[in-house]
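Q: Here's a chain of 305 amino acids. Please give me its 3D structure as tokens.
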Amino acid sequence: MAEYEFVFVVDGITLDDHDSVHTLTEDLDAVVSSSHGVTRLTVAGAGPDAVTAARVLMERVHATAPRVRLVRLDRELVGVSDIAELTGRTRQNVTQWTRGQRRDGVPFPAPEATVGRSSVWLWSEVDAWLGGIGLGDGELRPTRAEATEIDWLLQTTRKVELALVRHVDSPHVRRVSKLLAAHARTTREFIHYLVKNPRVRDPRGRYTILVCSPGDGAVDVFRRLESFDHPVVLATVTNRIHALVMVDGEGGAAKPTELVRGMTVRDWLGMIALSPESEFTVAAEGASTKTATISARSPMDLVGA
């Protein structure tokens, strides 16, 4: 069994998420870092090959920190200056390597891309070449082909987990719930929509979706949304599945629009379409009832129903 080093681009976690960072560090001996708004997870995994090792790691990361999603491998691109720094050699020395002036018979890897006027290389390929002259860092990394296969696995085998809540247990709502569960496994557009809205997850890392019928009473659905202690996706169907992230209102200058008895969810969707930035409220029902405001954000029409 060989041990490979992986650098994954991840979402669902930041450096401020101290509990998740601590768990990943302690349980997986991983390093979480962030640069230019991109969060990375560096972790080692063992296996007969890099793809098998990555597959095991995917499951371990999910079991250890359900909120974390492995998006893709970081290809770790390096330029001449980077290679010089990593090897302790001069830029001139590295430039000679890249031009094929050293290590006869074994050409330097081809550049991966050009940034401005400078070439950049895959560090995994450069390090493998450096190993032939005793300058590699000793770490095993996925080959180009293995990295491509691992990225494919990340896109096709990782599903998001839903916490589906039915507003009413009707055949229509059950059908929509079943559709959403299928989309969470197979529809990249829907998966990316959820992943971009991590605030709608419950403590177990599941994405909370309240499913209702367009004919349900808007006030009753509003009250149901109020009962959650975190933002929730509201999903319903007319001729397409509509998804909206429902969040607490921010109390802006504009007066919230009041939903009244007799209005349906379909009516509410129409109001949101006309005024996407609006906040909504319902009348307090008795002195003990707290008046809340809710806003709809990140609208999405998913698929034909």
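Q: Can you summarize the key feature?
A: The radius of gyration is 25 Å.
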